[in-house]
Specification:
about 325 residues; alpha/beta; UDP-N-acetylmuramoyl-L-alanine:D-glutamate ligase; 4-stranded mixed β-sheet; 13 strands
Amino acid sequence: MHTDTLAERFRGLLAGFSTRRILVVGDLMLDEFIWGKVSRISPEAPVPIVNVTGESYYPGGAANVARNLREFTAGVALMGLAGADAAGDRLLGLLESAGIDTSGIERDAAYRTTVKSRIIARNQQVVRVDREQKPLATAAQAARAIAQLDAMMAGLDAIVVADYGKGFVTQPLADHLCRAARAHGKVLTVDPHPHTSLSWCGATAVKPNRTEAFLAAGLPPSEPVTPVLNDSPLLEAGRRLRQLWQTENLLITLGEHGMLLFAGDAPPSHTPTRAKDIFDVSGAGDTAIAVLTLALAAGATPVEAAELANRASGIAVGKLGTATVTVAELAASFRSL
């Protein structure tokens, strides 16, 4: 396809994002960024002393996927579990101020909202501190989530599952999501967690990164090979995962090596990275799954959706912090076609 025609095609797909209605299901977190300056090393231990200059808070985990989607469409809803604590209050406040539907979020006084605190100095992450607990969703919570999902299904174009392994997404919920999406003809995409070993039979697309793909496939990690289509261990991981998950499309993100797509009966397709500068990979996977889902819901082919997701994540890693990508930024990337 001619480059001008290709750019026009991508702009047309992007224009269709704004009318898509997407539900995000998964583990909710609050991302805290503590910004500071390093002037000396501590006399107590060989670690830097960070003088704090500011703090920022953003929705994290599945909530960051919703935040990324909200840049492109107003029709974003979120389903998950948050604690009845100060972090939960802050998280829901951020989501509601962004115009994200939080009616699917259940507050539980027995649950502690996951908080990931990153200390940043000189534009570099010094350390990350996680405060979390990992209880499985109770049977009653899972039943309420399924009932609410069924009530919302008719009004959706797509569902994204962002499984961070914190316990909200269980196999019964995964099975119901797969069945309901197929029955109603909805796009279902999954950003899986390798240690949960959940099955996603019939999902539209599953998007692990390279490390997650090898873990989920039960294969030992291996060093990347270029060209990517000659990376035999990676190709074998993809083959095993398609057989394991029985998914229509498998998209493995490869960091600086781009993305590898397994779609239908077509040979694997590699798209190289579009990142120009890499400052922070925090949340880049959330950006990728958000744009992949929107593109598929807007009528893109799997190859087109992968290219759009690749361009979006390439923009995200060029920003510091848990960043989102705007419509204008993604549209501007088409000029390089």
